[in-house]
Amino acid sequence: MEHRSNTDRRKGFMNRLSRPCSIRVSFVATCCCLIAASLAFADVGDPQIKTDHAWYPGELACTTFERLQATQAQVYERVTGRKVRTDEDKALASWLWRNTHYAHGEEGAENLWGKGFTAGGDLRTREYWTGLFAHGFGLCGTTHSQWVAEMDAILGFNRGRGVGVNGHNAFEVLLIGGKYGNGKWCLLDHDLSTVIFNADGSALLSLAEVQKDWKRLTDRQHDPARQQGWLVCGLHPGDGGSYASYKVAEYLAGYSGPPPTVHLRHGETLRRYFRPGLQSGKTFVFWGRNYNTAGIPGPERSHTWVNQPDAMHRSTTGAGYKPGQARFGNAVYVYRPDFQTGGFREGVAAATETSLTFDFYTPYIIAATPPDHSPWGIYKPGCKNGLMLTTSQPTTCDVAISVDQGATWTSDVPLTSGLDFTDVVKGHRQYLLRLKSANNLLNLLQDAGLTITTVCQLNPAILPRLKDDGTNIEFAQSNRAVISAGPNLPQAKAHLVAGDFGTPSVTLELRHPDWLPTSRDTGFARSVEVFAAAHVQSGNPPRTDVRYFIECSPDGGKTWADLLTNWHIVRRGDEPGDFWSQSLCWGRKPIRASHQPILVRYRNSGGRNYLRAEAHLGYVLPAQDRTRVTFAWTDDTGPHQADHEFSAEDRNPLWHLPTGRNVSTDWVEFQPIPAR
Asked: What span, in angstroms and rounded, lies between the C-alpha atoms of 199 and 155?
């Protein structure tokens, strides 16, 4: 690996993220000529679709907490006949939805600490959207940590907590109003599919109440009528033993970052597969434990309500054991940079006279085909199919990869067809790819026919499914994209400009891409949004007097605005005797930014050390390009494929597909189309 010092990193930071700032005049002139030669730019920011499938309508139904809550309320009313009015209704609607969209399983780690996938510190995926979109599965402590962020969004601050019990990590929600008075912690266990009502079925019980009489209360045969149709221990009747103890409370154990956002550049497509195997049905690329169930490699869950959601309410027997009931899916990005017309410019993060650096960000997670069938083969060297480069013609260019925002690079290797960089990028959600040649770089690339293929893992439960007897498809495009400092510690360190990790103060630096026409012409970017989070040593027991602050400056430190104020750990209601000694704080803020650096500062009033921090910048792209959406499916009349073009300006962005009976959705694809 090629290394740079911290000083070099800070000096070079702006050059890495500001797209044209390091380009020499001669190279700028060449690029400008190419760009002027054609108007066929076609990048698309944040395309999303939703179908009228009753259970799995797709990402447009769940990419913000507001959309998610509305979807959950509709499903809850359809299933139970009750409108969502109270805190209890909101909590149960969320619980129903998570049970049918997220399974128990072991996800692959993200090398959060820069010390490998299995070392360095807390290894859980605690970020909500990554857990839901990139994985769709996690162990008990993982899912319940992530769920904290949703409870905060739909109910209010500090309204969900993880609770350690007997060999398990459960979850409690703080309900307020009615029989819950000023607030009561209540068991809301997604991982074991369990809620428990009191004797007359009028209110949920807390873990402390369940623990005192757990054998009787977790017996499925004990007065099931009180349960309002929700089976106790819905995945397995023996799960109730977990509630025999009540040990540890975890406050603010998870967080949410930016909503999942896809940015597709000119020459790029994104195809998302609903089942393992990719196009051939035999190429298994994943990021999690390899259970190898029923001969299919990769993560799966045999006890789950996922893919059988209509069986959950009023079940008397539970989810049952069905091998492969829930599995992983894939997102395949295929990028062919257009070096003929200048369309490649939309993918360039930095350039010099002899090099071009492309960036890649995804809300999913880059996956791998492991070298063997061992449970954790994804962590071994020799993985493939995560990042592949092919060329149609030989070239003398060199290529290198960085997964820490340019702080270190792999050694330059000749760009040849069949290069596989999976071992470098696996388990990440971003990378930089640098092409370099001493002479005539653009001429070489024009003839190379370069294709960059990145294969990610995703949760098929968030994909838009087609339904029987015709499907209506709705489209939306916000024209937003995201750049990130983090979540991995090495990625954040590349943006560090003041303070340090392991201390009570950290400042990170970001800048919006200033190649956008609105930035170049007016001197100001369109409104951007900053998302930030920090992992902090809050203490055991957590100190309630410490205030945590996140501030952002849109002008390089001249002025500061609060992104997060008065954030502190609130302890209330009954508590067990022990606590997790760490916590997360997070927030977001829209700002108006100039070309000056955007700074994000983390500090607190109690001298608590920051273990990790991350910052993300959401920005707006020009709203001029169309998106072609293609579905492939099979029904009772055979296999089918159809496409439709949408525009961000469409007043009625609807599409009707005449699907038949017994529909099985195979894949859905987005492709940017040049504006006409």
From this structure: 26
